[in-house]
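Changelog-adjacent note: as of this version, every example in the card shows the full chain rather than a window. The one below runs 207 residues end to end.
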Amino acid sequence: MPTAKRSYSSPLREQAAARTRALILGSATRLFAERGYGRVTVADIATVAGVSAKTVFASVGSKTDILNTIVEQGVVTSGYEEAMREVLALTSPQAVLRALAHGTRVGNEGQFTVHEVIRMALPVHENAADLWERATGSYRDALNLAARHLHALSPPPGCSVEETAALLWLWFGPSGWHALVVEQGLGWDQAEALLCRTAVATLCPTA
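Full-length structure tokens:
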């Protein structure tokens, strides 16, 4: 009676595969940020990563799959969940806004290359609206939650919760940071201080 073959999983082989996958994703992220998603091919990614195009497809998938993985990893590694737990534990409106300014600064600075990849991919992506939603949906939800938290504190902002959420997205969303740091050339420290002062002056006028 023939014996069924046992599947064998080598820890060393799995580690090598993980390193290859990370190398491919890192190479793709740099290329997408430098050239733009539409101008990069799988062959380009393979060349920079030092592997074959076949390995790229086997390890991560197509160019669309690679971009999706970059977006998913960016959301996971942004640290927004931990930052929001700290924000929601604060009981002073001013402290909440300072924490939002710093937390979103850390996230945007740390994920700067990933955000640039997404921004440059949007004009040529086959489903740009879905890409943007997947990249920023949790971010927007977190700021909406922060707005509701602000209105539960005393004194609450003088505008509605919806207006507060819109202002937080304007200031602390990815476009706000991009406008100040990339378009206006401010340093991250300067941009954080400016956004914090603006938020406190607008939402805590009696502070």
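Structural remarks: The chain has eleven helices and no strands.
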